[in-house]
Write a structure and sequence with these properties.
Number of strands: 8
GO molecular function: adenosine deaminase activity; metal ion binding
GO biological process, one term: hypoxanthine salvage
CATH class: Alpha Beta
Radius of gyration: 18 Å
Organism: Fodinibius halophilus
Structural class: alpha/beta
Pfam family, one: A_deaminase
Order of helices and strands: EHHHHHEHEHEHEHEHEHHEHHH
Helix content: 40-55%
EC number: 3.5.4.4
Largest sheet: 4 strands, parallel
CATH topology: TIM Barrel
Shape: globular
Number of helices: 15
Amino acid sequence: MNFSDLPKIELHLHLDCSLSFGVVKKLRPKITKAEYQEFFTAPAKCRDLADYIRRSLPAIELMQTEQALKLVTEDLFEQLLADNVLYTEIRFAPLEHTKGDLTIEEVVQVVNDTVEEQVEETGIEAGILLCTLRHYSEEQSMQTVKLVEQFKGSRVVGFDIAADEAGYPVDNHIEAFEYVNQKGLNCTAHAGEACGPESVWETLNKFSPSRIGHGVRSYEDPKLVEYLKKENIHLEVCPTSNVQTDVFEAITDHSVNKLFEAGISLSINTDTRTISNVTLNDEYETVASAFGWTTEELLQSNLHAIDHAFTDDGTKASLRKQITKAYR
C-alpha cells in the first residue's frame, strides 16, 4: 500500500516540535545534521514524558522572532504537503515565544497570518489551537484562553492543555476551561498519556473537552471506554510518540487497535514530527504493519477526525467527499 498517495487529516500536531533540518539550518546556519539529531530529536526510548518534552526546548529557543515563526510555519506546510494532508490543526503555546520582542498577540498574529498564506498557497485547510501548559499559573492559562476568544473568526479555532501531565495537577486550569465552555469555544486536552484512566476521567469531568489528546491509557478502564464511546469523545492518537515516551514498550503493545475495535472515535497523528522523527505516512505504515490496518480502518479514522474537526460543516462535507473517494 502506498500511503503517500492517501489524503489525510491530522488533528494533533505541535508546531514547535516539527522543525525540519532545513528550517533549523536557516535559523542556525552552523548546525550540523548530527547536532540536529542530538538536540532536536529524541531517542527511540525516553525516560518518560518529561524527558521527551525537554527535546522541544532548542526549537522554542529558535522561535522567538516574527521571521522564525513564519519560516517554521511555512516549513511545516511543506511537510504536510509531502504527507498529502488535506486538513490539519496546528497547536502551540504562544506564551513560549515572547522571550524576544514579541507580545503574545503578535506571536499569534504572525502564525495566523502565515497559516492563512499557506492555506491559499498549498490548498491545505488548517486551523490553529492555542495551548496552555500544565505548569502554567492560573493567570497564564487565562491569558491563553482569552487569546482564543480574541482571535475567534481567524485561523484560531480552539484551546488545548499540554505538557507534563504527571508532574502538575489540573487546578490552575479549571477557570480557563470554564471560560471555554461559557464562551462556546472549542477545546481538546492532553490526558491519558503519562497517567492512567484516572487522568482522563479528571480531564473529562473538570474540563469537558470534546476531544482528548492521546487518551491511549483509557483502555485500562472498561467503564471509561464505554463512556468515551457513549459520549462520542474523540481520541487524537500518536502511536510513535507513545512508544518513545514509554507509555508502551513496543508498538505492538499500543492500545490503538483495541480502542478502535471497541468503537472509539479516534485518529492517527504524528504529535511531534521532529522529536519523534516521523511523518504521517510513517504512522500509517506503522499501524498497517503492527495491526493489519487496511484502507478501511484508515478511512474510518479519517472520517472520525473530520467529524470532530474544529471547522464548519461545509468544509467537513468537502473533506468527507475527498477522503471517501480516494479510499474507495
